[in-house]
Amino acid sequence: MRYFLKSVATSKLTLPTVCVVAVVVMIVQTLPVDNYVGEESGLWGLLPLRLISERWIQFAIRIGLLAFSIYLLAELNTSFVLLRIRSRMISSLFTVLTIASVFLYPIQPSTIIAPVVIIAYFSLFSTYQLSNAVLPTYIFYLLCSLSSLFFPKILFMIPVFWICQIHLRSFSYRAFWASIVGLSTPYWFLFFYSLVQMDGLTLFLMPFLQLANLQIPDYSVVSLSQWLMLAFSFIVFLIGLFNFISTSYLDKTRIRITYDIVIIIGIAAFLFIALQPQCFNPVFVFCIINTAILCGRYFAQSESRAANIIFIILAILITLITLFNLFQDYILFFLR
Questions:
Q1: Alpha-carbon span 109 to 151, nearest angstrom
Q2: How far is the C-alpha of 37 from the C-alpha of 164, rounded, in Å?
Q3: Left (φ > 0), alpha (ψ -120 to 50) or beta: where does 198 sit?
Q4: CA distance 47 to 24
């Protein structure tokens, strides 16, 4: 039992097995309710993705974007040496959390935001101690701005990203203006497009109007499946956080700071959901990405008996949550 977690974390079959399970689950699942909360999806309604009615095309797009996100996380791990051993635990944990989150199955803004966020992390992490981080800073905030076209309230995370760059020792006067230019670039194109369309700048103003639409937190819009996954992800995040605090001295300074960034953004994402539950799905993508990176480190590198026990308990728990989320209508019917 002591080496069960170690064998899972280092096995080359772990990630392919999890991916096969993900495909099978998405094939057999009953189509979940399209419950991405609220209508604050920016220009999402203009994309042809929402007009696709054939289920197999939706499935192919969803699987393709999920596979791309898994690959990007694996490359992120390799590029920045997030783990001291050869392991795909980060990508595997992300896949498991995504499988369990049935409310993310329909094509929605979070479907596109997930790979964009991971790509943006490449630019953010690469700014470490760069005195002239103009280009990576511009690219990072450009990707954030592109995401804001489909989820405008992501712009509220910009101060958090500035704090992260300060911690990365790469935030300067030039980097600040690079971030402003990166954020404004997509909106300049949107402004001219809206001007050409002669729609009274309706398209251009739409994201800003949704950004300014701050509502009183309404927790009634969050489904039971979402509550379960939020609670599970938060517990797993805390486990990874406590382990990092106790073992971070084993990592190099750059790795420690990189994980500090993951923790800062993860905490901000959980607080975001607490303050604006109407934005649950796109913000929850941040939660599972950062949870997978943080706790993936714990599961991949720990060899203690306690880690094995925690891993087995969490594996059983997430399996039960996944089954409940997939078949909750039938389960709740029989429990009445």
A1: 7
A2: 28
A3: left
A4: 28
| 259/262 Cα distance (integer angstroms) | 5
Average pLDDT value for the chain: 88
Element (H, E) at 140: helix 134-148
With a cut of 80, say whether residue 232 has pLDDT above it: yes
Instruction: Give how many domains the chain has, as a whole number.
Output: 1
Range(s) of the domain holding residue 57: 4-26+34-335
pLDDT of residue 52 exceeding 90: no
Q: Taking 50 as the threshold, does the pLDDT of residue 335 lie above it?
A: yes
DSSP string for residues in 253-304: HHHHHHHHHHHHHHHHHHHHHHH-GGGHHHHHHHHHHHHHHHHHHHHHH--S
- Locate 327 and state its tokens: 């078949």
Q: Which sign does the torsion angle of CA 97, 103, 105, 110 carry?
A: negative
DSSP codes, 4-58: HHHHHHH-TTHHHHHHHHHHHHHHHS--------SS--TTGGGSGGGG---HHHH
| Cα–Cα dist 310/219, whole Å | 30
- pLDDT > 70 in the chain, percent: 93
